Amino acid sequence: MLKKFNIYKIAQASAYLQNKADAAHYMKLIKLVFFADRYHLRHWGSLFTFDKYIAIKLGPSGSSTKDIYTFYDFFYNNEISNEQAEYLKKIIKPISDFEIEIQETNKDHLSISTIKSLDFSAKHFGKFDEFELSNITHDYPEWKRYEHLFNNKLTDREDILLEDFFENPDLSNSKYIIRYLGNDPFDEDPSFISAMKEDFVNNHHQCI
């Protein structure tokens, strides 16, 4: 996974989101990156982060992205180079137990498609706090698949199937989307999304 996961790109994307959406709490950033990745996958056929997504009680989370924000020792000491670790420690500063400040102004690793995805996330979800965003993510199929396991305390994490990113929520059973958003911002031409999903599955992009 880390062969394609680019720590400079995620740092720049995180700083971009933090500035556009007033996102200091790391959980809010995790959710905003998730929504941007979801949009990118549905429109361009790949995640922009190339992260591994897991479902936890508080919703979908990019595994390596979370490790960066929470300064997870194993990630910093084993998954990336010393140079990359020093870069992250230099630009990401903890300002409280749950808040970080990202001091990165470069955007050279952000493609046009990535910026469009980040803008989509900030526009539709940036005004909500971390717990509201967590609630909203619970309505999307990639987390909903495991809802019964979490409700019955049968798991604390599950691997997310990226093909579920192409599925639409059941709005008759999506109380948080309706409460906070009124409708699903990801709603697209069904034939376009179906074609993108078919191409993704046929090319085994879920294995990246």
In terms of topology, how is this protein built?
Elements: H1 7-21, H2 26-44, E1 53-56, E2 59-62, H3 63-69, H4 73-79, H5 82-91, E3 92-94, E4 100-102, H6 112-125, H7 130-137, H8 141-144, H9 147-151, E5 158-159, H10 175-180, H11 190-202
Antiparallel strand pairs: 1-2, 1-5, 3-4
Write structural notes for this entry.
It is a single chain. This protein has 208 residues and is mostly helical. The protein has one domain. The protein contains eleven helices and five strands. The protein has helices spanning 7-21, 26-44, 63-69, 73-79, 82-91, 112-125, 130-137, 141-144, 147-151, 175-180, 190-202, and strands spanning 53-56, 59-62, 92-94, 100-102, 158-159. Strands 2-1-5 form a three-stranded antiparallel beta sheet. The longest helix is centred in the first third of the chain and has 19 residues, at 26-44. The radius of gyration is 16 Å and the shape is globular. It starts with 6 loop residues before the first helix and ends in a 6-residue tail after the last helix. 34% of the residues are buried. The model has no long low-confidence stretch (mean pLDDT 95).
List keywords for this structure.
about 210 residues, 3-stranded antiparallel β-sheet, 11 helices
Give the domain tally: 1
Number of helices: 11
Question: Main beta sheet, described?
Answer: 3 strands, antiparallel
Stretches with pLDDT under 50, minimum 5 residues = none
